[in-house]
Design the sequence.
């Protein structure tokens, strides 16, 4: 589950909202250069997601538990490790307009000065 929170840049003082984390049916990746985010739905990811779920010992989430169980029991493809899955999704996400790459572990950045030195404030929303 993802969340939105208030942030303040420790470098320039700019205040803004940050969305972080994916949901029950999508991943949120972030550009490693400018901090822009991109959501990737499991439906768009397709086979790599099925292969990743196949290799899990538990459901990906409680919201998808029934579907995940069916995948784990019936999907004929070979399981995919988390690192290989992340690499496949990052490749599918492509390049950001700024030229950076969308990554699972890229830090949020200030939209004004691109600093990663942020003060995390109050959570304003939780979402799927």
Sequence:
């Amino acid at each position: 589950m993802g969340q939105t929170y208030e942030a303040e840049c420790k470098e320039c003082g700019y205040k803004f909202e940050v969305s972080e984390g994916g949901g029950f049916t999508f991943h949120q990746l972030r550009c490693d250069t400018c901090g822009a985010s991109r959501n990737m739905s499991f439906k768009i990811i397709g086979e790599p997601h099925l292969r990743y779920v196949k290799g899990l010992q538990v459901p990906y989430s409680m919201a998808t538990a029934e579907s995940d169980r069916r995948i784990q029991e019936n999907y004929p493809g070979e399981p995919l490790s988390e690192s290989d899955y992340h690499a496949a999704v990052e490749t599918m996400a492509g390049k950001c307009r700024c030229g950076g790459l969308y990554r699972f572990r890229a830090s949020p950045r200030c939209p004004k000065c691109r600093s990663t030195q942020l003060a995390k404030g109050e959570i304003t929303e939780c979402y799927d």
